[in-house]
């Protein structure tokens, strides 16, 4: 293969990309540093509940933008349950496809085994330094939350590296935000 000289002309043809792969313009420069902007990291805590799916949909519709990376986090009990892990992997694959289709966002998924969901979410937020941590409510009443504790309440008080967004659960009959 011959190398081109600096002033030498050459022929080229633009390649038409499939419609699923967006053409992305060169990122703008940051005002303060002059460096190229890159996508943001957004941590979304998920489970198999409808409120969790509603929080995911809310984050796609209101928070995510092109070039962002969505970090899906599901905390499972320490009891190793192969069926639960497989079901969670399928859920995460489905959500990753939806994130690409709706917000053109890249998705990274992690399943963590732990008994303390709230502490894991806070540790992941400390590790990732996301722009936000998004989670749904569990649907408990105020009294139940006080007696049993609330994952979102613990995260609000103990997560210092990112703002916590708690998306209220949708009521029966409400339509999804997407």
TrEMBL record:
Official protein name in the record: UspA domain-containing protein
InterPro entries, per database record: Rossmann-like_a/b/a_fold, Universal_stress_UspA, UspA
Signal peptide feature range: none
Ranges of residues in domain UspA: 40-168
Organism: Papaver nudicaule
């Amino acid at each position: 293969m011959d190398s081109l000289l600096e002033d030498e002309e050459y022929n080229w043809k633009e390649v038409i990309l499939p419609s699923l792969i967006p053409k992305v313009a060169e990122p703008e420069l940051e005002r303060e540093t002059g460096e190229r902007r890159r996508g943001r990291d957004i941590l979304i805590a998920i489970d198999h509940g409808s409120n969790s799916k509603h929080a995911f949909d809310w984050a796609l519709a209101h928070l995510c933008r092109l070039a962002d990376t969505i970090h899906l986090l599901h905390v499972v009990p320490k009891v190793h349950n192969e069926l639960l892990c497989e079901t969670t992997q399928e859920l995460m694959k489905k959500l990753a496809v939806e994130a690409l289709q709706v917000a053109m966002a890249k998705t990274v998924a992690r399943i963590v085994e732990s008994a303390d969901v709230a502490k894991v979410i806070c540790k992941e937020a400390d590790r990732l330094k996301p722009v936000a941590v998004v989670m749904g409510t569990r649907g408990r009443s105020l009294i139940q939350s006080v007696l049993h504790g609330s994952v979102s309440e613990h995260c609000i008080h103990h997560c210092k590296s990112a703002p916590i967004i708690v998306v209220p659960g949708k009521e029966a009959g409400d339509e999804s935000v997407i």
